[in-house]
Specification:
By secondary structure, this protein is mainly alpha-helical. It is 64% helix and 6% strand. The chain is built from 7 helices and 3 strands, in the order H-H-E-E-H-H-H-H-H-E. A 3-stranded antiparallel β-sheet has the order 2-1-3. Helix 4 packs across helix 5 and helix 6 packs across helix 7. The chain is elongated, with a radius of gyration of 26 Å.
Length: 185
């Protein structure tokens, strides 16, 4: 049987093609599983997947800095990163690392539009003067302004993420558990 005849046979009998395709996928799956490549999906964000191993690795790393964090909180943070990185790509923001892309996006699309009026800085100083232990306004003004900018930035980021989550298809595949460090395998 020649090459062309074989192609015609495959095209005529689609079930033959489907059978061999499924057999191939099944064999590849078993090989990958045997080699340790099998990994469950913890969540989907549209077409992007977060695997269980990625979640577990990020959870372990985050626990070092924040011991009381849950896997669910880490998963939500990973989802938020995907959403912000995707949004940054729309603006063609490119940097050497994902963290730098996120920082650039936040600086350009959020922080750049925050302005804190001088009257608000002064009011914060007066309302919290005990916190500044006798320091003059001019000595703490920039510190107060930075704090108020960060506070507003957090509000804006939460709103941006809320909007991004509305338009994304997010499917969480792992059960919501309040896993603590003592439960890590």
């Amino acid at each position: 049987m020649g090459k062309e005849s074989f192609k015609k046979l495959i095209m005529q009998d689609r079930s033959f093609f489907v059978f061999f395709f499924l057999l191939f996928v099944l064999l590849i799956g078993h090989v990958c599983e045997a080699e340790g490549f099998s990994d469950r999906v913890a969540a989907f964000v549209d077409d992007d997947a977060i695997t269980e191993s990625e979640l577990q690795e990020q959870y372990r790393e985050t626990l070092k800095m924040t011991p009381d964090i849950t896997r669910e909180e880490v998963l939500n943070t990973m989802i938020n990163r995907i959403l912000i990185l995707r949004e940054a790509r729309k603006y063609r923001i490119e940097r050497p690392s994902p963290d730098e892309v996120i920082k650039e996006y936040i600086d350009l699309k959020e922080r750049a539009f925050i302005r804190v009026p001088e009257t608000e800085i002064e009011r914060y100083y007066k309302e919290n003067s005990a916190m500044f232990s006798g320091k003059e306004y001019d000595d703490v003004r920039d510190e107060i302004e930075q704090y108020l900018i960060e506070k507003e930035l957090n509000v804006r980021l939460k709103e941006t993420l809320r909007e991004l989550r509305k338009t994304a298809h997010i499917k969480i595949m792992v059960k919501n558990e309040q896993e603590r460090p003592e439960k890590i395998q």
